[in-house]
Amino acid sequence: MKKRDRSWCAAAIAIAALIALSLSSCSASSKPSSEADKPPGDEIITLRYASYLLDTAQASKVYYDAIEEFEATHPTIKIEPDFIQNANYMAGIKIRLLGGVQLDVFDTWSPSLFEEFRKLNSNVYLDLTGSDFLNGFVPHVLQPVTVNGKVYGVPEVMHSDGLLYNKRIFAELGLRIPQTWTDFIAVCETLKEAGIVPVATDSYWSTAQFFWGSMMSNNGADEAWTRKLENGEIPIRNGIFVDAITKHKEIINRGFVPSNWSSMKHEQSKDLFGKGKAAMIITGTWDIPSILERDHNLEIGFMMVPGEKKTVPNINIGTYRVINAKTKHPEEAKAFVAFMSSKVTQEKLAEGAQAVPSISGSTLGNPIAKEIASFVTRSDAVLYWPHTVSTESLQVKIQEGVNHYLAGQSLEKTLEEIQTAIDNANKKEP
What is the pTM of this model? Predict the structure, then answer.
């Protein structure tokens, strides 16, 4: 979902080089509608909407359909979609915010990315507190975008992360969904003996977090624990963290993943799973639509990564939609956000993206979405780790360190590397 942003300094240097390109690329698509397109007597207002969701790999058709429906019901408002690939999203939004490019509405994919943009300017977001469209959301989903009692973002559909599994393979081998880590290892052994790759994974930098991050939640790494980690009260070599990443390394060492996983791309691991050559895949439920494109008859189920003593459901809010505080059209931007976040629209988006609406009382027709809902709506469900890390930059550094470990770096060097990153992030600016 996300791309590494190695440092604020690097981002600043990149901005100087990329801003001209960004302005150039935006100019063609951000021109206002011609006079011939305007309804008689009405002025067309153009809102620029930047998102990583407007891509075929992310079931984008449902988003373009929603935009088209909004424009049909709001004839004086035109939406200019601004698609930025996942890999470039964080840097792309920073460039637009700092470079003065028109940007009215944009998406963030986690509380840490929400905070990352606030680091640029604490007043970057339009205050939405008291807006009618904030009513009706399931408990706690507004908390990550609430600062000092004020709400600055609106949640969209909910996903979860962990393991998708092939129901046919499990049925043919008589396998049950593992409830404990011991059960999981036994299932993987059976699959390996049957000549099937137990778990598809790959070298894409963000993939690994959906396995060991889930284990972190199982181990008790909630938001309060994360704050203690960041302020130095808890060291990274704490058992909660070490247990999670060593369990991930265990499935690699036991040969439960593709032998060439370290050189595979994420699309290749989806191919393995989508074509029935792997029984499970490390990913999030947002990948279901693109996997089904490989085989529309594939029967996909979702399971959480089982823990040693308990298994905690993970909530992954697919998107928080925010409004740039510098927009020249705040009321029109609010109308667009309200529409995109409404119960009716969320139900349509959820159907297309195999997700769960964050609006209470929503109807779910898709069986996979119902299965996901059975997890994310549980009372013990939590925001998964590492999305509780306060900024995207630190989150990425932690993930990079774990990736080095999974690829062969020693545990000791890995822990030292990550602890240094946490200590540096914790240093007070002079």
Answer: 0.81
